[in-house]
């Protein structure tokens, strides 16, 4: 029986894709409570709020306005992100009827979408084998996994658009002639650029730089301009029209871009031109927030990839076919983005490093598969060597890249300190259902190690928790602790959560905590008492 | 709009069933429904629109996902300001499906 080659390719693609999503969903396969850093909380709550409230919004609800009122620099107190990313997740949540899995799974699908777009572009330009190998190696990319876990959700997805936007431009250019052309590619490019803006504006600038330099590269190669200015004008109009759908958010992008100009007070040295990692993105500048490993080529890509990467670049530089120019210009555009501090735009420059793997990996694979073509061998041996190199890439990936990726993802946010437990989720849901949106909730007593859980409880309940910081204990409240408590708690809802008491090292803290409840709450209404969590309504007494 | 032949339809359905079954076993019912939602809401209407243009099959599939996740929520978001978000999702789906047929009719003329 002869099986269609395209079906086999599709099945191989599906197998690698499902393997990737199996890996990337490990953090929430066994534990369906939310997790992540502060960024993740903001993304989750924006999506969850829409789905739960069954209404979208322009002005921020009180619990979001409390933390993010000035994030939109064009129109404060409104949504600072373009709405589509979070609305997508809200749609998933509403469609699947669940608050946690749909949002996190949609995020996992979005975060791995860049592997699909790299696969697609490589398949179209270089064939199936380089494409599927690139996809497989990317699935274990630590430079993607770490920011994904930290919560830089829209940025991860935004990178998926870079190769696609460049591909559309490439297709338009390479199919253009005065007699016939395919402007549809240019128009799709504009739509994708607009969606890229909606998802993550900073990455859209990367796409624009990529397209600009691809155009220059192809122009040098062809020595002619394969463009029609009417097509360009129409595509600009399409982009402008789509960008204007969300005026406050597009306005925020423009204002932020203009205000950030010249914010780089330290003049970078020109020696930086010969370095890949930017000066202000070195490990010592991020001690405590970004691990040093993130800045290490060896730990992010694996040392074994370096010779293949160099070989891949050399092969493309020598060959210089149009498809080679595509990859070289993509690499060059990332180099420019990583050196944007030289023109006074250093904001989030270290985060652009996370786009390295998307172009490094295709180059690594091309390097490995090109070895056979460099040797004067009969065709049969060349083929054997080529498939041998492919097998080597798979073995090395399994050996060196998959294990750290697997352990990082399977152990991510495993600690009971980091995720709300079932009782905390339950009380958060109760608060959401029983209290008004404008009412404040204070969660008393969390010791610093479980602060993250309290942020999640505030997020899960859609209620402000302005004083959850534990003013019982913190030195800055020492002077006027009683006044602070009295002033703040009036008309507030107070949550005493003892579910994590077993995790506490400092028992004296527990004693003070219980004493505070006994002394201060006896005259106030106890309205929730379940699973070692009590909620009081603090009224005037 | 050309319908794929029986063999292709069979393969597409098989692939979709395989993917949905995978997510059901790994993440349960809500995981499966999430993926089904992405296929039906984000990809299908945009695919039907792109199917009216001179693009290759794989391009239509890939672009339908990346355009769908931008256009679908943009419409649902603004409708959701006026009506229930869940109804807005349904109306958005209907608008985009109708658009694909209008484009098809317009292109035939």
Which runs of chain A of at least 5 residues are low in confidence (pLDDT < 50)? none
Question: How would you state the average pLDDT of chain A, rounded?
Answer: 89
Please work out how many helical segments of chain A DSSP would assign: 24
Reported for the largest beta sheet of chain A, the result is: 4 strands, mixed
Largest sheet of chain B: none
Counting structural domains of chain B, the number is 1
What is the strand tally of chain B?
0
| Helix and strand composition category of chain B | mainly alpha
Query: Looking at the chains present, what oligomeric state does this protein adopt?
Result: heterodimer
Strand arrangement, major sheet of chain A: 1-2-4-3
* Major interchain interface with per-chain residue totals: A-B, 58 and 45 residues
Q: What's the number of helices of chain B? A: 3
Helix content of chain A: 55-70%
Shape descriptor of chain A: elongated
Key features?
heterodimer, A: 541 residues, mainly alpha, 4-stranded mixed beta sheet, 24 helices, 4 strands, elongated, B: 109 residues, 3 helices, 87% helix
Provide structural commentary:
The complex is a heterodimer of chains A (541) and B (109). In chain A, helix 7 crosses helix 19 and helix 10 runs antiparallel to helix 11. Chain A folds into 2 domains: 326 residues, no CATH class; 116 residues. Chain A contains 24 helices and 4 strands. The N and C termini of chain A lie far apart (85 Å). A 4-stranded mixed sheet of chain A has the order 1-2-4-3, with helices on both faces. With 541 residues, chain A is mainly α. In chain A, strand 3 and strand 4 form a beta hairpin. With 109 residues, chain B is mainly alpha-helical. Chain B has one domain. In chain B, 87% of the residues lie in helices and 0% in strands. Chain B contains 3 helices and no strands. The two termini of chain B are 14 Å apart. The mean pLDDT of chain B is 93. Chains A and B meet through helix 1, helix 2, helix 4, helix 5 and helix 6 of A and helix 1, helix 2 and helix 3 of B.
